[in-house]
Amino acid sequence: MALSNATLQKIIQTDEGTELLVQEANQLGSALARQLATSQIRAIFGEVRRIEGDWKIDPKRAHKNLILLKPKMAYRAKRERGKGVEDLVAVLDPAIDLVQGNEENFTRFVEFFEAILAYHKAYGGS
Q1: What confidence tens digit (pLDDT) does each residue in 11-42 have?
Q2: Which of 69, 103, 107 is nearest to 88 (CA)?
Q3: Helices assigned H by DSSP within 1-102
Q4: CA–CA dist 95, 11 (Å, integer)
């Protein structure tokens, strides 16, 4: 379920990737709806929202917390039953690397994650 690095780069690091963002989020949300509970996604998304709030106050610290989210996601992926969290982390982990401390990239990352969550719910994710 992982996306190619070129696809993720276009989504996270360019403004031209909006249509691709929606297309890929649609596919991911659809696939994850069958294997992932909303609470599993929301646990990770809640942490991203907290980081987003910190970004305006202290971008350096927020970026550090974003990087530190990677081991938390890896732990959650191994702890949870099923492959859903693992598949989500396989997409989010390399996407986090592409943020590179850049606020615009981080905003696109959040938009991508929001779109995945929205499609997950639209496709019946519980």
Answers
A1: 999 988 899 999 999 999 999 998 888 888 88
A2: 69
A3: 5-13, 18-33, 38-55, 59-79, 84-99
A4: 9
Tokens of 10: 């276009």
Whether the pTM exceeds 0.85: the reply is yes
User: CA 68 to CA 46: how far, in whole Å?
Assistant: 14
**Max Cα–Cα distance, the chain, nearest Å:** 38
For residue 42 the two structure tokens come to 């929301």
> How many other β-carbons are positioned within 10 Å of the β-carbon of residue 69?
20
- The residue to which tokens 């191994």 are assigned: 78
Joined tokens for residue 96: 């986090």
- 101 is written with which tokens? 């401390």
Place of tokens 């981080």: 106
